[in-house]
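Sanity check record (used in CI):
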Amino acid sequence: MIMASSSTDGQHTNEIKNLTPHKIVLPADLLKDIQDTEAKGCLDNDSSDGFFYIPNFISEAEEEHIISKIQSAPQPKWRTLHARSGEKIGRLQNWGGQVTKQALIAEQLPEFLTSFPPLLERIRETGAFQGSKHGEPNHCLMNEYEPGQGILPHEDGSAYFPTVATVSLGGHTLLDVYRYASQDAQSDASKPADSSAKAREQLPRFSILQEPRSLLITQGAAYKYFLHGIAEREIDEDKHLSTVTNGDMVADTSVRDTIRKAKEGGDSNSDHSLQRQLRYSLTLRDVERVAPKNLMAMMMGKQ
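Expected output for Fe2OG dioxygenase domain-containing protein:
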């Protein structure tokens, strides 16, 4: 068993101005029964729709700095999440303001996103948000995941421009990607608590390994047509790693080799697994509808 570290010489990836080389190749049969031409853009190498993976998007020093800022945030900034049973399932911090049904009640983003490291600038330069109102994210949700914690499959919804940028810190994870169930399969699918929502397939179609310091961009049709979640487990074993679709893009050679061996199968006595560690996830999005400043001032005055 190994731990993902993506150890580098301390430098981050050179400026990314073209996402095409970083597009994740998805399973060829992923959309065979879907007729929607927009969804099929996820399989087109030249389309801006899809999942894009960039390892070492930030340096080790930048990662350490961001983690220290997260950990030293005042207690009121933290929100603890609990399951219906009362069990703690994670913690989060909200940066950039409050997202309401009507608009974003904006707040200034912290310097560890805007100055050192200049995360927003680097993300803007990728072009991922060039079609959004602000051209870059204006909101960040930080989730803390201890080993064994995860999040149920979900979609990010219509409040945001259909692109999300996720930076991973500290430890790795596997992002499991699900499809919505077809009409014929609705009875066998996993149905959400909201009966008006669409059901999803029971098993993920594929997984994406996110290393520490990596950037994952989910864009366009990939944002609209798929759900994503993180399974609650402490160890990612062979059967989990065999579904990883970006193994050849992983920077850590030992992790890449572990994924390859898991896919090949072979010796059942061999340990092809990854131990999860404490992970922080920065989910950056553009909330295009922002409340006018006078309304924000009024709402702040009522607090």
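The chain is about 20% helix and 25% strand. If this sentence no longer matches the regenerated tokens, the check is flagged for review.
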